[in-house]
Amino acid sequence: MLNLENNRINNEEWTFLLFLLFMQDMQNKNDTWDQFEKELIYKNRFSSDSPIVKELQNRAKQASKTIPVKTNLFRARSFKHSSFDKLLKYYMRENGCSKDEIDEVLNNWSESEKYLSLLPQLYSNVDPDYLNNNEETATLITAQQKWKRYVRFKGYSAADSGAPEPDLIGNGRANPDHIRYLYLSEDSVTPVYEIRPIIGEQVSVARFQLIKEIKVYDLTLDIQDHMKDPEYEWPSLYNTIGQMFSKPYNGIVQQYIPTQYLAEEIKRMGFDGLRFNSSLHKGGVNIVLFDPELCRAVASDLVDVNDITLTIDEPIIYRIGQKSLGKKKRI
């Protein structure tokens, strides 16, 4: 029981009370999400009057964000083809080889023959003057430099960098199966994390540009609910929605149902997409476009995954009821 002396609560008691209220408030918000999730999965898939949906609607004005035309966005895909073959094909074409000749080499040479004969020169940064007496090598290096400078799509082509065709699309965080949304990130590193690569894997990172200004529902904000006393603020139900969009679900399809429902609600409200924090790359931000044609692929590069870093946060320890100097306090 709180010690009320002269109808006053001391600072330590206020801290303890606010902590209890905070924990209860967080639990209530998690319970609200759990009820929303169970309703959609087990009872009613296509309509809901949950407080979650009402919160999404009520925050629409606050959460509206405009992204300018020509903004760069990025998408990563595991690269399953040979980047060496792409470069070799370019080199042969630059040196006047016909399509049949190129196909003959690509189809009949073993991988070891290709690498042993050309790879050291293709991927080296040797000064051409150093090998100026070797005409074939100098030509090869020149082709490599031109490839680096002029070939915009070193990874997947523009068509293969975008969203798959509807028949190939499974359930995602925002889209039901066969619904063609485009998942992008605001920097070139985050999308590599998002595909969960393994060490040694090669990844194609495509750069897209918006072809028009768009309006997205921003779930990255820190919107607070204010108590009557403005000194105290509490996380809002909006923040819970943002956390659930960022939460990794490891491909468990049924757990995508609530976020898919909310994405459709956001689209119905007239937004072009939504914006949420990455859970796999701290500080990274992801964007989902409801219409993939709102942007176009302008380039792609190949990156090698050489290292993966796992960071574990220090455990959070709450110390309650610390000893205080002087007069004892009774709680």
Describe the protein.
The structure is a single chain. With 331 residues, the protein is α+β, with helices and mostly antiparallel strands. It contains 11 helices and 10 strands. The strands form 3 sheets. It has a 5-stranded mixed beta sheet. Helix 4 (83-94) packs across helix 7. The longest helix is centred in the N-terminal third of the chain and has 33 residues, at 11-43. The chain is elongated.
Please name the defining characteristics of this protein:
2 domains, alpha+beta, 5-stranded mixed sheet, 3-stranded antiparallel sheet, 17% strand, disordered C terminus
* Number of helices in the DSSP assignment: 11
How is the quaternary structure best described?
single chain
Runs with pLDDT <50, length 5+? Answer: 1-6, 22-26, 119-124, 227-233, 316-331
Strand order of the largest sheet: 1-5-8-9-3
- Rounded radius of gyration (Å): 28 Å
Proportion of helical residues: 25-40%
| Strand residue percentage | 15-25%
Q: Count the strands?
A: 10
Number of domains: 2
Shape: elongated
Terminal CA distance: 5 Å
Mean pLDDT: 79
The sequence of SSEs as H and E is HHHEEHHHHHEHEEEEHHEEE
Overall structural class, as computed from helix and strand content, comes to alpha+beta
Major sheet: 5 strands, mixed
Quick summary of this structure?
The protein is built from eleven helices and ten strands. With 331 residues, the chain is α+β, with helices and mostly antiparallel strands. The chain has two domains: 11-79 and 158-304, no CATH class; 83-150, no CATH class.
